[in-house]
Amino acid sequence: LIFQNEGSWRLLAGSEGIMKQYLIDKIVKVKSTGKIFDKAGYKFSDLFKHSWKSWLGNEKHKIKLWLSPFWADRVNPRMLVADQKITKNKDGSIIFECTVNSLSEIAAWVVSRGEGVMVMEPSGLQKTVIELASGVLKNYDIKIFQEEP
Q1: Eight-class DSSP state of 115
Q2: Residue 99: what are its φ and ψ, rounded to 5°?
Q3: What is the rounded CA–CA span in Å between residue 47 and residue 127?
Q4: Which residues pair with 72 in a beta bridge?
Q5: Dist. CA 117–CA 113, nearest whole Å
Q6: Please, is 142 exposed, middle or buried when counting C-beta atoms within 10 Å of its C-beta (0-12, 13-18, 19+)?
Q7: Cβ neighbours of residue 100 under 8 Å, at least 6 residues apart?
Q8: β strands within the chain, DSSP E
Q9: Pick from 105, 103, 14: which is nearest to 54 by CA?
Q10: 100 - beta bridge partners?
Q11: Pick from 96, 102, 132: which is nearest to 114 by CA?
Q12: What confidence tens digit (pLDDT) does each residue in 69-123 have?
């Protein structure tokens, strides 16, 4: 399957019995296995059902996020994943629930939003977000910005 995501053309193909995603512009060598691809084992419409931005595997994780009114206005009209559920709160914030196929991909998305997006569930995703955010903050260690005498 060839598709476009985030400005890059990608190839979804089997490798050693595992479905993998490849950036087409990064492929330097291809060899035929001599096998004919049997599409009967795959329901392609389901491949991206739980993907946030890219197909990253067959994992399924139920997530629950709180989004401030600022982010709620930006996310609410958009369909991010097939099974998303949005619950509006009186203060304008929302609870966003869905199933994703990669916790690391959604963790990066949460951290990139900055203030106003909080992971409610699962705890493993909370931990990953905290680790990512802490790593980013290390880039701004105050010692780096102090001028030398």
Answers
A1: T
A2: -115, 130
A3: 27
A4: none
A5: 7
A6: exposed
A7: 50, 51, 52, 60, 61, 63, 81, 106
A8: 2-5, 8-15, 18-23, 61-67, 85-88, 94-100, 117-121
A9: 105
A10: 61
A11: 132
A12: 999 988 876 777 778 899 999 999 999 999 888 888 889 889 989 999 999 999 9
Residue in this structure with the two tokens 């869905």, named with its chain if needed: 98
pTM of the predicted structure, to 2 decimals = 0.63
Torsion angle of alpha carbons 91, 97, 100, 103, nearest 10°? 50
| Closest C-alpha among 96, 39, 38 to residue 71 | 96
Contact status, residue 126 vs residue 64, Cβ threshold 8 Å: no
Question: Residue 56 CA to chain centroid, in angstroms?
Answer: 8
